Amino acid sequence: MALLSFLFVQKKFKEEKIKIFSVFDFQKIFKVKYETAKKWISRYQKKGYLIKAKKGLYFLKENAPLDFELANRLYQPSYVSFESALSFYGILPETIYQITSATTRKTKSFQVENLKNF
Prior knowledge:
It contains 5 helices and 5 strands; from the N terminus they run H-E-H-H-E-E-H-E-H-E. By secondary structure, the chain is α+β, with helices and mostly antiparallel strands. The N and C termini lie far apart (36 Å).
């Protein structure tokens, strides 16, 4: 289990360019059992190394994803709305304080660790 030191995990995620991951992703990357992956993620989260975006979805505190990356991953299938994109590029005169994603699914709202609403 020493193989899964946090420095090793952090390095592997950076090499693979993975910013947001699930327990299944962790299991697949490190070739461990699902329960082992859950335990390690729980430990890292308690130590403050990981942020829980929502149930089963995490990211490294030091390598946080962009707001738009996170919004796309929180609720799938979805895409960043035109309003959010136009505001990001400064085309809309109003300021948009939250990212809106468009989807064919039921409407949901997410708050991630004092970050913006998604």
